[in-house]
Design brief:
Blueprint: H1 3-13, E1 14-18, E2 24-28, H2 29-50, H3 54-61, E3 64-67, E4 70-73, H4 77-89, H5 97-104, H6 107-118, H7 123-136, H8 140-143, H9 153-176, H10 179-193, H11 200-218, H12 223-228, H13 235-245, H14 248-257, H15 265-275, H16 281-286, H17 289-292
Antiparallel strand pairs: 1-2, 3-4
Length: about 290
């Protein structure tokens, strides 16, 4: 029997597909359609999660750029930030493709935080940036809707891990750019106005800043990082110190105790809880007893 006859006979019986280990798995004719559909589904899912939105790329490029060692915003910088927020609203909630593209482009380090720290007095940019940071610092589980229960478990886990990795990078960048310094300044300005003199937009801005602080503190630590920083300050520890250094901790205590700021009390307590998440109650009770008294 010649080779062509052998091939024809095998094709009549079914198909054989090579797996990732180099071994061939034989499928009967009845399974062929299911195999093709499964391959198409996997290829479609992968291409969707890794696709690049050219409009988002153009929007990020229009934010601005560095000129020598100073970041210079683009003429429509604030509008571009708002456009990025719109992209996030319509992203695929199963794949989180937009926030992953933003993270992979290193937009946070190259554009967003440089803009935020270079133009802190530009109200339009500051308010738009705060809205964007609230979104991109959200927990991975909040980013993905309940429909993800229908998603392949392995793929869902991969997306969650990717988002958590990028959130840890954001946490380090918040330290690098001293973001808490600018948050402290804005929070102080808003609180000095008093509840009666603040507008609804001012209250919303105050709440959004607190949400960002809560979100970034909530980012889980990496197990390898915990092992490396067992006897030194971790990224979370340094962020806590930054919050204390710039006076945000005192502002949180004020928000918790003020009768006129009750609407911000629960969120402030969440942040305080996260500040001490790595300590047990006994350790806290035994530390600095003279200060407690």
């Amino acid at each position: 029997m010649d080779l062509e006859a052998i091939d024809d006979e095998e094709n009549e019986k079914g198909i054989a597909i090579e797996d990732e280990n180099g071994e061939f798995i034989h499928y009967e004719d009845d399974d062929e359609e299911a195999v093709d559909q499964n391959q198409v589904k996997q290829e479609t899912t992968i291409s969707s999660s890794e696709s690049i939105d050219p409009d988002l790329v153009a929007t990020i490029a229009a934010l601005g750029s560095y000129e020598i060692d100073k970041y210079v915003k683009g003429p429509e910088c604030a509008i571009c930030i708002v456009d990025i927020i719109k992209f996030l609203r319509i992203e695929n909630k199963s794949l989180c493709n937009i926030r992953l593209q933003i993270a992979k482009s290193e937009c946070m380090e190259k554009d967003l935080l440089p803009i935020f720290t270079t133009y802190p007095d530009d109200d339009d940019i500051f308010e738009a940036m705060v809205r964007l940071l609230v979104n991109v610092t959200m927990s991975s589980l909040l980013c993905m809707e309940n429909e993800n229960n229908k998603m392949d478990k392995k793929q869902k886990t991969t997306i969650v891990l990717d988002i958590n990795n990028y959130l840890r990078e954001y946490k380090e960048l918040f330290l690098k750019f001293n973001v808490m310094k600018y948050f402290s300044s804005k929070l102080s300005t808003l609180l000095v106005l008093g509840r009666t003199n603040r507008s609804a937009d001012d209250d919303m801005l105050l709440e959004r800043i607190l949400i960002i602080i809560r979100n970034i503190l909530h980012v889980p630590c990496d197990s390898e990082e915990e092992a490396n920083y067992q006897y030194s300050a971790s990224t979370h520890d340094k962020l806590v110190l930054s919050i204390i250094e710039y006076g945000i901790a005192e502002l949180l205590m004020y928000l918790c105790g003020s009768t006129s700021e009750e609407q911000h009390c629960i969120l402030s307590l969440e942040i305080i809880n996260l500040l001490f998440r790595d300590f047990d109650a006994e350790t806290l009770a035994q530390s600095n007893p003279t200060e407690v008294n």
